[in-house]
Write a structure and sequence with these properties.
This protein has 43 helices and nine strands. The protein has 873 residues and is mainly alpha-helical. The longest helix has 19 residues. The chain is elongated, with a radius of gyration of 44 Å.
């Protein structure tokens, strides 16, 4: 209060006191918001009265003492001469009229010796029986020199309004004095608000405008902030601390404003920038009224609904005020506030991320999250709402935590299993290993929840297991439920034997979501193992782009790996290496068994690229029992075996190939279309000089169902040629080239071409052999298969010699495409239409091709060039 304000109020009170001393009773009610100086002013009145020779009786009511009958009267008469205190009755009962008359008479008797001043602080908290006595007193003690001065908070709750208040205001000797907040100018006039007047070295402080902005002109807050600033060593002073005088003053203002204001203030604080009067009203109890509670908070300067002069809902003046209001509540109380805020905001249509923040805030606060069974739908809907927004790591983590809460309160076992499966789906967004762990927990519990689950849950789980490469577990789950599959086939057989036409449509039509992840992975794998593996290249690339756009690193790792596998299958070893590296980079630390999938691609691609040291760095991963129980582990075993072959360790390679084969046979999933371990083992046996055993493995693989698939058949024929009679090699190798060319397996085609070139040369056809070797070399060069290229051209520099035949400079990509189409029998016009170039350009390319290959025309082009048409990646 300013000097002028103090003088005005002091003058009014002096006049009232003077009137009382000449024998006239008076009633004064000092009204103001919490922290505005009512108690200080009441204390000043008491000091003045004592100085004037009056008898001063004081009492301070509290909310806790409201239920103590005659508690205020006991305080008042405690310092008076012997006084007959009325008997106490029931808490809310009206005292007998005789008791009130006796009290009034005895007090008037005291006034015969001089004025009596009753100073009552916080009248709104006084007990009912004391108020009835005081009400009787002010009505009947008018001739006596009795002054009653009380303080009351503005906008007190209706339940706290003094029962005598209406009678007081109707008395002719009643006077009301209102005190309010300081204006910005009045704040600047407070002496302690001037930093240069503080004791000690002068230092910059807050400006008067800043002090007013933070405190709202509330004297209690202002003096507390100044006290905290004076104690601070920093210059300028920091924001108020949660355990400092300012925070304590905020809590005091909040509590002195009444229970309604306390509840409303906490609701505003918990809702933060979304606080509005309707939402705060919904946060309160049905019997509470938000309007007077919010008015009380505005009156004491805590709330400010304006920003730059415009209405902005409800907000505290400063973040330190909001923090102090929340800090005043216990963690348990804050947790319940957050829960109620989540319910209110959901009903108001707030975004899922806002609701999720409230549902999860108690955990960050160190409190138990107060969810209840009836919150199950709220938790589930909020989690799904989060996932429906643009995916991101933070939202995925929040959704998982919400579903964990829902799982903990779900009383229904089937629904709980569904939540657990949903958690496994969501975990795949960030980390395939996390998804593996969650699904494993469902499978390996004391009583498998999946075995007892409904058909839909089992089918979905089996698909997820198969997509994770857990072939045996997927089959076992379906067998336990009596669902072995059509004609007794395993889920893996169904995957490999699915019609390609139907599977090819899935990746192009379905969007990538949690629910479609497993089906899309399986659809791409069907394409990958089919006779048209090139279809897996664009399909996996599109899904990889979706995964990248989603911001889900787990999805990105999965589809980067599938794209790498598809590229490797069609011979793009550089692209396969890049994509597999990208997949590993996307994985978090650990990666689980899935990590072995991109590592397998990397090792095989490094072998083709001649990067043996790099490959050696990737085969350090241990092959544990858990790893062996997944397709990824077997792919890794195969890649490691191929690496051993590259380094001339056929015995170690053979051990890896056979180990993989035994595991596939144990699963009843021995499918060469996925993992041709027999032809791999045959290569190792050939290096060991065990030709007969190598041939037996090749023949065995050829006789199995996948032996008719071109990719498998081509490799079998190549092994049969290597282990058969020399006179049969050329025929078998030509068939192998044709089979491998049909499926676009360029790396395998190049190897078969190299074998064919050597066979032709050995059969007495050096010209044909040289042309075929040139085609193999050119194809290896296009793919970046450095190991094969260098094997064909030792030294690989300039013009080299293969079996005595000069091999000229390499064809360019454009020349290679034109030559390949010409070797297939297309005319110049047809080639031009296919490649979108002119017929003249085709003729120029062919002229250079004839010169480089040393042939005289189209008829001299080796047929093997037809395999060189590249697959678009």
């Amino acid at each position: 209060m300013t000097q002028a304000g103090r003088a005005s109020v002091a003058g009014a009170l002096e006049t009232v006191l003077a009137t009382c001393t000449v024998g006239r009773s008076r009633v004064v009610l000092i009204e103001g918001a919490a922290g505005c100086g009512k108690s200080r002013l009441l204390h000043a009145v008491a000091e003045q009265a004592v100085a004037a020779g009056a008898l001063v009786l004081t009492a301070a009511a509290t909310e806790a003492g409201r239920r103590m009958p005659l508690g205020v009267l006991r305080q008042l008469v405690g310092s008076a001469p012997p006084f007959a205190l009325p008997r106490t009755g029931a808490e809310d009962a009206k005292p007998p009229r005789e008791a009130m008359r006796t009290f009034c008479a005895e007090l008037c008797d005291l006034a015969l010796a001089g004025p009596v001043v009753l100073c009552l602080d916080d009248v709104q908290h006084a007990d009912a029986q004391s108020l009835h006595h005081l009400g009787y007193l002010v009505r009947h003690a008018r001739p006596a020199p009795v002054l009653v001065v009380g303080t009351v908070s503005s906008y007190a709750d209706a339940a706290q309004e003094p029962s005598c208040a209406p009678e007081l205001t109707r008395q002719p000797h009643f006077r009301r004095i209102r005190i309010g907040l300081l204006s910005a100018r009045e704040t600047a006039e407070v002496p302690s608000a001037r930093p240069w007047e503080w004791p000690g070295p002068a230092r910059p402080g807050r400006t008067a405008a800043e002090l007013h902005r933070i405190t709202g002109g509330n004297p209690l807050l202002l003096h507390a902030l100044l006290e905290e600033d004076r104690a601070a060593s920093a210059s300028p002073p920091p924001d108020p601390a949660l355990d400092g005088p300012f925070a304590a003053a905020v809590a005091a203002c909040l509590r002195r404003s009444g229970p309604g204001a306390l509840a409303a203030g906490r609701a505003v604080a918990i809702l933060a920038e979304r606080a509005t009067e309707p939402l705060v009203t919904r946060m309160l109890r049905p019997e509470d009224d938000a309007a007077p509670a919010l008015a009380a908070l505005r009156a004491c300067g805590l709330l400010d609904g304006l920003v730059d002069g415009r209405a902005c809902g409800l907000r505290f003046r400063h973040p330190a005020v909001l923090a102090a209001v929340l800090a005043d509540a216990s963690p348990r109380a804050r947790a319940e506030l957050h829960r109620r805020a989540a319910l209110v905001l959901t009903a108001a249509g707030a975004p899922a991320d806002v609701v999720a923040d409230h549902l999860l805030a108690p955990r960050a606060d160190g409190a138990r999250v107060p969810v209840r069974p009836e919150d199950f739908t709220l938790l589930m809907d909020t989690a799904e709402g989060l996932l429906a927004q643009r995916p991101g790591e933070h939202r995925t983590d929040q959704a998982e935590r919400l579903l964990e809460l829902a799982h903990g309160i779900c009383p229904d076992e089937a629904a709980r299993t569904g939540v657990a499966l949903r958690l496994a789906q969501i975990a795949a967004r960030r980390d395939p290993e996390a998804a593996e762990r969650r699904l494993t927990a469902l499978l390996t519990g004391p009583r498998s929840a999946l075995s007892a689950a409904g058909a839909e849950h089992r089918s979905r789980s089996a698909g997820m297991l198969l997509a994770q490469g857990r072939i045996a577990e997927s089959a076992a789950l379906l067998r336990e439920a009596g669902e072995p599959g059509a004609h007794g086939e395993t889920p893996f057989d169904a995957l490999l034997d699915a019609p390609v036409a139907g599977r090819a449509e899935v990746p192009g039509r379905a969007r990538l979501t949690d629910a479609t992840l497993a089906p899309l992975v399986l659809a791409v794998r069907t394409l990958l193992y089919s006779d048209r593996p090139e279809r897996a290249v664009p399909a996996s690339r599109r899904l990889l782009e979706e995964a990248e756009a989603s911001g889900a690193p787990g999805w990105r790792a999965v589809f980067a790996t599938l794209h790498a596998e598809a590229l490797l299958r069609v011979g793009d070893v550089r692209g396969a290496h890049a994509r597999a590296t990208e997949a590993l980079d996307a994985l978090p630390a650990g990666g689980g068994t899935f990590r072995y999938a991109p590592v397998a691609v990397l090792v095989e691609a490094c072998g083709a690229l001649g990067r043996y040291e790099e490959a050696a760095g990737h085969i350090r991963y241990p092959v544990t029992r858990r790893v062996l129980n997944t397709l990824y582990g077997l792919q890794y075993l195969r890649a490691r075996g191929l690496h051993h072959l590259d380094l001339g360790r056929p015995q170690a390679a053979l051990a890896d190939f056979r180990r993989a084969g035994r595991q596939l046979q144990l699963w009843r999933a021995d499918r060469a279309a996925c993992l041709p371990w027999r032809t791999d083992a045959a290569q190792a046996l050939l290096r060991l000089g065990k030709v007969r055993q190598a041939r037996e493995l090749a023949e065995e693989q050829l006789a199995l169902p996948d032996g008719e698939r071109p990719w498998v058949r081509g490799q079998c024929l190549r092994m049969l040629a290597a282990t058969g009679e020399p006179g049969q090699r050329t025929v078998l190798l030509r068939q192998a080239v044709e089979q491998l060319r049909r499926v676009g397996a360029r790396l395998e085609t190049a190897r078969a071409l190299a074998d064919l070139g050597h066979a032709l040369h050995a059969d007495g056809g050096p010209s044909q052999g040289a042309a075929t070797l040139r085609a193999a070399w050119s194809l290896a060069q296009q793919m970046g298969a450095v190991a094969l290229r260098d094997e064909l051209l030792p030294g690989s520099g300039g013009v080299a010699v293969v079996h005595g035949t000069a091999v000229p400079e390499e064809l360019t990509d454009s020349e290679g495409r034109v030559a390949a189409l010409a070797a297939q029998g297309l005319t110049n016009r047809q080639i031009a239409a296919r490649l979108f170039i002119t017929a003249s350009t085709v003729e120029q390319h062919l002229t250079r091709v004839y010169r480089k290959l040393g042939v005289t025309g189209r008829n001299g082009l080796p047929a093997e060039l037809a395999a060189e048409v590249p697959v678009t990646t």
